[in-house]
Amino acid sequence: VIREYERAVVFRLGCILSKKAQGPGLIFIIPCTDTFIKVDLRTVTCSIPPQEILTKDAVTTQVDGVVYYRIHSAVSAVANITDVHSATSLLAQTTLRNILGTQSLAQLLAGREEIAHGIQAILDSATEHWGIKVARVEIKDVRIPVAMQRAMAAEAEAAREARAKVVAAEGEMNASKALKQASMVLAESPAGLQLRYLQTLTTLAAENNSTIVFPLPINMLESLWQKNRGG
C-alpha cells in the first residue's frame, strides 16, 4: 500500500515497470522478480551549514541558509542519481559559495533576496534531470568578524556625524539669511527696533522672575538729552 504522498518505482527483472512510478493506493508485486523503492514527494527542508566565504572585496564571512525542494519525478530521482538528497545538499553548498564569492560585502548584506533567487534558479536548473523542483532558497545569517563589525560601526558613525554637520551648516546659512532680511526691515523703521527690545523684555519677564539689565538704544538717550538741554 502506497500512501498519498509517496510513489513506488517498481523494478521487474532490473527494468523499471511501465517507465513510471506506481501509486498511490494498492499495488501488486510479483515475488522474486519484482522489487520496488518508495519515494517521498513531500517538500524537504535542507539546511546549508555555515560556509566560510571570501567576498569580492576580500572580506571573510560565514553564511548559512536553507533550501526547500521536492521530488516531482520519482523515476528520475531513483534512476538518475544514487542519493538525491545528499547530492542536492552538496550542490546547494557549492552553489552558495560560488555565488557569494562574486559579491561584495555591501551587496551581500543589502541584496539577500536577489542572491537567494539567483541560487534558486541555478539549483533548479542543475537538479531538473534528478527529478527535483527547488521551491525556495533563503539566506539565514551572515556573520562577519568582530573587527570588521567595529570598522563598519565607526564608518557609519562618521557618516552620520558628517551629515549632521552638513545639516547644521545649512541651518546656520538659512538663519543668517533670515537675520539679514530682518535687519533690513528694522533698518527701514527705527521704531521697530525699539518695539523688538520691548517684546524681548516682555518675554523674559514672563519666563523668569529675576532682575534684568536691559540696554537702551543710544539714539533714544540722545533724544532725551537734547530735550533736557532745550528745556
Structure at a glance:
This protein has 231 residues and is of the alpha+beta class. Helices cover 51% and strands 22% of the residues. A hairpin with a 5-residue loop joins strand 4 and strand 5.
CATH uppermost class of the domain at 42-144? Alpha Beta
Report the CATH topology name of the domain at 42-144.
Tetrahydropterin Synthase, Chain A
Element-by-element helix/strand order: EEEEEHHHHEHHH
For the record, what is the CATH homologous superfamily label of the domain at 42-144? Answer: Band 7 domain
Largest beta-sheet details: 3 strands, antiparallel
- Please tally the helical runs, counting DSSP H or I stretches of 4 or more residues: 7
Parts with pLDDT < 50 across at least 5 consecutive residues: none
GO cellular component, one term: plasma membrane
Pfam family, one: Band_7
Main location: membrane
Keywords: Membrane
